[in-house]
């Protein structure tokens, strides 16, 4: 295998993100999220997908009749989201913004941030700022739904492990390093993506890309305090994809918050 080496942090992974996420049961995750929206009487209207990535969940909710807005800081991710929008014909507004200082044109009925997007906010004060803006743009009876990977998951499951996957058109090596004191998980990601143009008549030629990502492990107690400090109310928390209370071994937790009384 030939390879050309490039370093293009936080952008090259976008090109193959959906390929490597094809084993994620998005329809089940979407149904789980939709169940919460219905439970809190959000059956239509404007909904914001905060950290929307390539727009898979944004499209899922749009197909259910919600007026969707997607916010992400990655232009490369949003390019793929726009391609999906063009194919589906859904009227989705995408905005390239940092979630720590995102701006909308008005309030929305619900905001959700899933697939551990908030773990990328590694400073609690920055996460408090995200929650402040969420509170600012929620309707008075609006609801905020988010998930996060727990400290337990990084410490006991992901930390200091290597995950690799080989596909015909792309491969990756994903090295994890967990720093216990800082509660930061460092991802060293090496991608090998087939270059279709260079491969013509030359055998398979792959380009190597390298990225470094950082996520922070939070506890439910911390998240609850940050929600309340932003002016919102904490409604409920669940072990992901269940209606069971979180435990000390929960790897992902869903939190429901908002302004009203439920």
TrEMBL record:
Entries under InterPro entries matching the protein: Methyltransf_25, SAM-dependent_MTases_sf
Keyword Chloroplast: no
A matching Pfam family: Methyltransf_25
CDD domains noted in UniProt: AdoMet_MTases
Protein name according to UniProt: Methyltransferase family protein
Gene3D superfamilies per UniProt: S-adenosyl-L-methionine-dependent methyltransferases, Vaccinia Virus protein VP39
GO biological process: one example: methylation
Gene Ontology MF: a single term: methyltransferase activity
Keywords: Methyltransferase, Transferase
């Amino acid at each position: 295998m030939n390879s050309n080496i490039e370093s293009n942090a936080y952008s090259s992974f976008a090109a193959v993100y959906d390929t490597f996420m094809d084993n994620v049961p998005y329809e089940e995750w979407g149904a789980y999220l939709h169940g919460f929206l219905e439970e809190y009487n959000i059956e239509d209207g404007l909904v914001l997908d905060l950290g929307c990535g390539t727009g898979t969940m944004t499209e899922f909710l749009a197909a259910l009749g919600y007026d969707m807005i997607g916010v992400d800081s990655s232009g490369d991710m949003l390019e793929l989201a726009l391609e999906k929008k063009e194919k589906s014909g859904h009227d989705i507004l995408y905005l390239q913004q940092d979630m720590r200082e995102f701006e909308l044109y008005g309030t929305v009925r619900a905001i959700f941030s899933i697939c551990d997007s908030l773990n990328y906010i590694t400073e609690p004060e920055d996460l408090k700022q995200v929650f402040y803006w969420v509170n600012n743009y929620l309707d008075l009876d609006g609801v905020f739904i988010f998930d996060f990977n727990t400290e337990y998951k990084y410490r006991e499951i992901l930390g200091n492990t290597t995950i690799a996957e080989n596909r015909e058109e792309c491969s990756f090596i994903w090295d994890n390093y967990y720093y216990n004191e800082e509660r930061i998980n460092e991802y060293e990601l090496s991608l090998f993506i087939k270059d279709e143009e260079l491969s013509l008549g030359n055998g398979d030629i792959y380009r190597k890309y390298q990225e470094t990502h950082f996520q922070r492990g939070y506890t439910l107690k911390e998240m609850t305090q940050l929600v309340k400090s932003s002016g919102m109310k904490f409604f409920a928390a669940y072990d992901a994809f269940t209606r069971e209370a979180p435990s000390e071994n929960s790897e992902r937790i869903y939190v429901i918050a908002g302004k009203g009384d439920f």
